Amino acid sequence: MAVSGGLLGAAGYRSLPSWCTPAYARARAAELVAAHQAARTEVVRNPHRNAEWAQAVVRAPRLLGAVQDLIGRDVAVENTLLVLKWPYQNCEVPWHQDGINDRVLLDPKGSVAAWLALTDAGRANGCLHVIPGSQRGGYLPYGPEPGTRVQRGRPIGARVAKDTWGVPMAVAAGSGLLMDVRLLHRSLANVSEKARLGLNIRYVAPGAVTMRDGSSPSLDPVSGTGWQSMKGRRTGS
Ligand SMILES: O=C(O)CCC(=O)C(=O)O
Predict the structure, then answer these.
(1) Distances from the Cα of 112 to the Cαs of 39, 146, 195, in angstroms?
(2) Is residue 83 within 6 Å of ligand 1 at its C-beta?
């Protein structure tokens, strides 16, 4: 059924309770904190390509089932990003839309973004803020914004008024959000003593990815048979 506003309805997002247990999420977070604390790593790109924990997470049955309900049985991961916000660290991710950047353009009818909390995420430690309904404006012009430290999605600048706050999305460890890939969202600094770890995943159906340079997309199929004609585990380059 066509839904005005897109796959996720008028608001453009939905909560995803319990894609795993809080204990499971916190155990993964503790391992990641131990691995990355010394270097204070803020971003790990595409952990689903080589880390077992992320390969399991992108296939978590409740998560995958919810994604399939939205985009169909053939699902691939286009991209993942682990963001680690250390206590009292100013690691902000500016306003952006997940479905557009210098590299890719995602069809909002065949793609969905998931943001998964590995720790509890609230206002103090830098949870996501969203602008409900912003997906209805479609993709906006974007460009790099001086002074932003995490190069993810792209800040929108002029099209989002400077004083736009958005709605903070507190999410407990083991739960998450599903978002329209055009939904404007961001996250602010961690001003607490608690680390905040979250995994962003872009899921796509066949044909939903356009590469800006005309190349074939590099995808990791996680369900369905529609990918079988493509050789190897990863499709594309
Ligand atoms: O985890 C965050 O703070 C933001 C991540 C995000 O918005 C993204 O990866 O698209």
Answers:
(1) 31, 28, 26
(2) yes
Domains (range + CATH), the chain:
13-216 (2.60.120.620)
Give the residue carrying structure tokens 């969203």: 130
pLDDT attached to residue 229: 60
166, pLDDT greater than 80? yes
Instruction: Give, for 14, the enclosing helix (H) or strand (E).
Output: strand 13-16
Ligand 1 atom with the shortest distance to the CA of 199? 1
Ligand 1 lined by 154 (C-beta under 6 Å): no
Pocket test for ligand 1, best of 185, 190, 202 (most atoms within 8 A of CB): 185
From the CA of 127, how far away is ligand 1's center (Å)? 9
Q: What percent of the chain has pLDDT over 90?
A: 76
pLDDT at residue 211 above 90? yes
Yes or no: say if 116 and 63 are a contact pair by the CB < 8 Å rule. Answer: yes
Which secondary-structure segment (H or E) carries 30?
helix 22-36
User: Following DSSP, what letter does each residue of 74-100 receive, concatenated?
Assistant: -EEEEEEEEEEE-TT----EEEE-TTB
Does the structure show a pLDDT above 90 at 148?
A: no
Identify which has the larger pLDDT, 142 or 32: 32
Residue among 48, 78, 79, 83 to mutate when testing ligand 1 (max atoms within 8 A of CB): 83
Q: What pLDDT, on the 0 to 100 scale, is given for residue 187? A: 93
